[in-house]
Amino acid sequence: MVSTPASAEQEAADRRFMAAAIRLAQKNSGRTSTNPSVGTLVVRDDGAGPVIVGSGVTAIGGRPHAETEALAEAGELARGATAYVTLEPCAHHGRTPPCANALVSAGIVRVVGAASDPDPRVSGRGYAILRAAGVEVVERVLADEAAERIAGYLVRSLQKRPEVTLKLAVSADGMIGRLGEGQVAITGAVARRQVRLMRAASDAILVGIGTALADDPELTVRLPGLEGRSPARIVLDREARLSPASKLATTARSVPVLAAVGLDADAARKSALEALGVKFLATETYEGRIALPELLEDLAALGMSSLMVEGGAETARNFLDEGLVDRIALFTGPGTVGAGGIVSPLDRNHIPDGFRLVREARFGDDALAEWTKAL
């Protein structure tokens, strides 16, 4: 079916319902394994205005897909309705039919899609199935907004590595801490809670061994009701220097800890950590440090789509220098660190080329700005 030009009223409704589907998709962000968290709304209008009769989000673990969930909720009300889907419906057969076919079988007459799927088994094919069945298809409604929300899946599909978010907390005088003093509070409690929410939506958090030794961080979510959403924790630890008494090592059985070590790492230290539940990633080294591109490929092979880099300065610079950062989340606090401070590798006046500002917010006295790089 060839789409006819939509009225301004229809276009406004499409954007409104797609925005709601994008918000819905965030419900299981970081919990859908190698699949993206997709949102679907089934909307029908029997003359009194459009009404949502079915909603679905990709289930925890990646199955069932959002379309299946929304169609099941809508039941017979799906016949003659419109489906709003944040990612092109899948077109490949597994043990269950493709979502594109499921939409056709349910009697959906119009599909509004947002982001395109780079998976060669899907790209363009889902929409082709729908059009061949006479379903009207409208593409790329709020496409950029939807793509930003599933950037981990898109980066992993296109570049064979996780999406990397560099999170930094920078003082008013451009510092991220003070030498020899461990953790220094740059931001307040409200901003720190926001960081934990960001962790909950990530597959893994990464720090360098310097940060692990100096700060002894736990790197978990620690928010009421979200304790089970803590992602895997990764330490760049070429020589296996992580202390068995550290918070990371002593909690490794409850929340996974992966130490990226070199071939020459001390066997006795590895054994002590392994006894506590720490797992190891055998890595290649380059110029005396862990080869980051190869490490990211290995993480993608483990099914990880999103990685949050939290420290420290050297690790952040290495990711930036390698061109491996896709998103920058910069928290700025009002206080100063002063003498002995560790200079941040960037601030909002020195953002690398190729990034665009996509979001700003305030959390108490602290500011957050986020930049993303085009895929």
Automatic annotation (TrEMBL):
It holds the Pfam family RibD_C. Its EC number is 3.5.4.26, 1.1.1.193. NADP(+) binds at A169, R199, T211, D215. Residues 12-137 form the CMP/dCMP-type deaminase domain. The keyword DNA damage does not apply. It catalyses: 5-amino-6-(5-phospho-D-ribitylamino)uracil + NADP(+) = 5-amino-6-(5-phospho-D-ribosylamino)uracil + NADPH + H(+); 2,5-diamino-6-hydroxy-4-(5-phosphoribosylamino)-pyrimidine + H2O + H(+) = 5-amino-6-(5-phospho-D-ribosylamino)uracil + NH4(+). Binds 1 zinc ion. Substrate binds at L219, R222, E310. GO terms for molecular function: 5-amino-6-(5-phosphoribosylamino)uracil reductase activity; diaminohydroxyphosphoribosylaminopyrimidine deaminase activity; zinc ion binding. Pathway: Cofactor biosynthesis; riboflavin biosynthesis; 5-amino-6-(D-ribitylamino)uracil from GTP: step 3/4; Cofactor biosynthesis; riboflavin biosynthesis; 5-amino-6-(D-ribitylamino)uracil from GTP: step 2/4. It comes from the Bacteria. Its cofactor is Zn(2+). The active site is at E67 (proton donor). Zn(2+) binds at H65, C90, C99. GO terms for biological process: riboflavin biosynthetic process. InterPro entries: APOBEC/CMP_deaminase_Zn-bd, CMP_dCMP_dom, Cytidine_deaminase-like, DHFR-like_dom_sf, Eubact_RibD, RibDG_C, Riboflavin_Biosynth_HTPR. Keywords: Hydrolase, Metal-binding, Multifunctional enzyme, NADP, Oxidoreductase, Riboflavin biosynthesis, Zinc. Converts 2,5-diamino-6-(ribosylamino)-4(3h)-pyrimidinone 5'-phosphate into 5-amino-6-(ribosylamino)-2,4(1h,3h)-pyrimidinedione 5'-phosphate. NCBIfam families: eubact_ribD. In the C-terminal section; belongs to the HTP reductase family. PANTHER family: 2,5-DIAMINO-6-RIBOSYLAMINO-4(3H)-PYRIMIDINONE 5'-PHOSPHATE REDUCTASE (PTHR38011:SF7), DIHYDROFOLATE REDUCTASE FAMILY PROTEIN (AFU_ORTHOLOGUE AFUA_8G06820) (PTHR38011). This is Riboflavin biosynthesis protein RibD. It comes from Neomesorhizobium albiziae.
